[in-house]
Amino acid sequence: MLEFRYDTQLLIEGENLDEDAINDYFKNNFKGDCLLAVGGEELIKIHFHTNEPWKVLEYCSTLGEIYDIVIEDMDRQARGLKG
Global pTM? Predict the structure, then answer.
C-alpha cells in the first residue's frame, strides 16, 4: 500500500508566478511527496503525490489558469489496473 496514492500533475499559467513560494506553500500545507514545482513567472509545472489532489487543484487555481491536469491512481497501477 502506498502512503500517497494520487500522482497529481498540472500546469499553471499566470503572471508573476514564484516557484519558491509555491514549493514552500506545498511543503507547509499539503501532505505528500515527490514534489516538483518548476518553471518561470508565467508557467509552472506541478508534480506531486498526495491523497488529496482536490486541495492541490484548488490552491493552484488561485494562482492562475490550470490545464493539462492528470491525476493517476498509483495504487490501481501497482495492481496492474489502469490508473
Answer: 0.93
